[in-house]
Structure formats: structure tokens, C-alpha cells
């Protein structure tokens, strides 16, 4: 004889299983019916400055309610466009990550309007042991001589920060900002304003340059007076150049002597009476 409880449990299990299947099927159907839009994404990693080609792109379904601002929906609209930032595989192609229409490929595509790119020669020490990578910010220090002029003090050596928060665009011929491994190179390309470019060109002609790596989120400037040999070796404070004072005209004081008192010559003469026989005479001296 069959166990009634076992039959009931079996029937209940079948009912619950059918119910779960129906609910899951409904949830899957609901998710499949969510509105979506075609969005162009990167089919592979795209380096900044690269000209886009059809092989770099693909179109995927993107939920209509979460399309990022500036997303491109047609791959044809990206023909001959240039990426001004690195784009990872599967990342949506946004207008903000593209250079203006008509821009040629290469490093010039990533230089903002009003800025310039300038390359300086470095070595493993000047280049912060290869840690000055594209996308990092550096300060620039110049070591030079202060001319003594006519003060007779001679030339004095000084190190001074002349530029701050300068973006590294490229090292050697590599502009990728995705790498973190240090690279020792012999040239670094920096992003500068025209005024900063003039300052850097003068600095490298009057002395030697050093790059100082700084925190990427630290944008605060620091005003320094530089450091000189006496201050470095003896701890003396850097004194400003003494001002040249114009000597004051010397006023001559003329002291007039009082005239000597007049002496009565007659009153001071000596008289001698001379007697010669019967004659007398007076002789005055």
C-alpha cells in the first residue's frame, strides 16, 4: 500500500517546481523585452592619438535608459576620427574622448587648444629614474649661476623651481598613459603654454634641468626663493642683493678764524738812552 504522505509531498514538489519555472521564464522574458539601443564601443584597446578604423569598433546593444552622454550610435560617424584619450576594449566611444573633426592623428591631436608641446633632453637621473610617464605631472628645476654684476661678489650658483604642474605628454616616442612601469628614456615631451615654453627654453640654455615628480591631484603652487651654496652648506639665509646707495654730497664747513688783534707797536718798543760825552740820545728797539 502506498504511503499517502509521500504522494502528497511528491505532488507538492512538482507544483512548486512548475511555479518556479513559470516565474523564471517570466523574469527572463521581461529582461529580454527591455528597450535597448545600438552603441559603438571599442573592439580592442585604442591608444590616444590613434585614427579610428572599422576594425577597432563594434556595435552592441545598450539599455536605452543608461546610455552615457555623448555616445555614438553609428560607426560611420567615426570615420577618420582621432582618439584624444586611451579607450579600453568594450568601452563606449564618447564624443568627449575624440579630437575635433578634421584633426590629424598623432600627438598633436591630444594637445589642447592654446597649449604647446615641447621636448627636453633627460637621462635616468633628470627623468626621475623613468617614473616621469605620460599623464604624470612634474615640476622643473634649473641649476644656474647668478651673475655678480659689478658688486665684486662673483657668480653664485643657485637651484630654483621655474615651472610647476607640467603635464608629461610623451616619453621618447611613446604617448600611452596606461603603463605604470618606469622607462628610462633620453627625451620627455611636455605640455606648456606659450609663456611656459619660452621660460623652459631659456632655462635649459642658461643651466641644467631636473624633473621633479609630483602627486597628480596636487595642484597647489609653491613660491620658493631658490637655494644657493652658502645656504646649502652653512645654513645661511638667502640674503637679497644689497641696494647700491648713492653717496650723499659732502658739505664742507669753512671755519673763519678771527683776525689777530692789532698790537700797538709803539707801546711795545724798548728805548735806550745813549750818552756820548756831553751829548745824549735815545735809541728805540
List the helices and strands and how they pair.
Elements: H1 4-32, E1 36-42, E2 57-63, E3 116-121, E4 137-146, E5 156-171, E6 187-192, H2 194-206, E7 208-214, E8 227-228, H3 229-234, H4 265-268, E9 271-276, E10 279-284
Short account of what is shown:
The protein is α+β, with helices and mostly antiparallel strands and 285 residues long. The protein has helices at 4-32, 194-206, 229-234, 265-268, and strands at 36-42, 57-63, 116-121, 137-146, 156-171, 187-192, 208-214, 227-228, 271-276, 279-284. Strands 3, 4, 5, 6, 7 and 8 form a six-stranded antiparallel beta sheet that branches. Strands 1-2 form a two-stranded antiparallel ribbon.
Based on CA inertia axes, which overall geometry fits?
A: rod-shaped
The main pleated sheet reads as: 6 strands, antiparallel
End-to-end Cα distance: 189 Å
Summed up, the helix count is 4
Please identify the structural class as seen in this structure: alpha+beta
User: In sequence order, what are the helices and strands, one letter per element?
Assistant: HEEEEEEHEEHHEE
CA radius of gyration:
47 Å
Strand content: 25-35%
In helices, the fraction of residues equals 10-25%
How would you state the average pLDDT, rounded? 78
Total beta strands: 10
Amino acid at each position: 500500500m502506498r504511503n499517502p504522505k509521500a504522494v502528497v509531498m511528491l505532488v507538492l514538489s512538482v507544483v512548486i517546481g512548475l511555479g518556479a519555472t513559470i516565474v523564471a521564464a517570466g523574469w527572463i522574458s521581461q529582461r529580454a523585452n527591455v528597450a535597448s539601443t545600438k552603441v559603438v564601443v571599442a573592439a580592442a584597446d585604442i591608444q590616444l592619438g590613434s585614427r579610428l578604423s572599422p576594425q577597432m569598433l563594434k556595435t552592441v546593444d545598450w539599455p536605452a535608459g543608461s546610455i552615457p552622454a555623448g555616445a555614438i550610435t553609428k560607426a560611420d560617424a567615426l570615420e577618420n576620427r582621432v582618439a584624444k584619450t586611451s579607450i579600453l576594449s568594450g568601452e563606449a566611444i564618447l564624443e568627449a574622448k575624440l579630437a575635433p573633426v578634421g584633426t590629424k592623428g598623432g600627438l598633436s591631436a591630444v594637445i589642447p587648444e592654446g597649449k604647446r608641446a615641447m621636448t627636453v633632453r633627460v637621462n635616468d637621473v633628470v627623468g626621475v629614474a623613468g617614473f616621469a610617464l605620460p599623464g604624470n605631472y612634474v615640476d622643473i628645476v634649473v641649476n644656474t649661476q647668478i651673475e655678480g654684476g659689478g658688486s665684486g661678489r662673483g657668480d653664485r650658483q643657485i637651484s630654483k623651481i621655474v615651472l610647476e604642474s607640467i603635464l608629461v605628454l610623451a616619453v621618447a616616442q611613446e604617448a600611452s598613459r596606461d603603463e605604470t612601469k618606469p622607462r628610462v628614456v633620453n627625451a620627455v615631451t611636455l605640455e606648456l603654454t606659450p609663456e611656459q615654453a619660452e621660460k623652459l627654453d631659456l632655462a635649459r640654455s642658461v643651466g641644467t634641468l631636473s624633473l621633479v615628480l609630483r602627486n597628480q591631484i596636487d595642484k597647489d603652487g609653491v613660491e620658493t626663493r631658490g637655494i644657493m651654496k652658502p645656504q646649502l652648506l652653512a645654513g645661511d639665509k638667502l640674503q637679497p642683493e644689497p641696494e647700491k646707495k648713492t653717496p650723499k654730497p659732502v658739505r664742507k664747513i669753512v671755519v673763519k678764524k678771527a683776525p689777530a688783534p692789532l698790537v700797538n707797536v709803539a707801546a711795545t718798543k724798548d728805548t735806550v738812552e745813549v750818552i756820548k760825552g756831553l751829548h745824549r740820545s735815545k735809541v728805540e728797539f
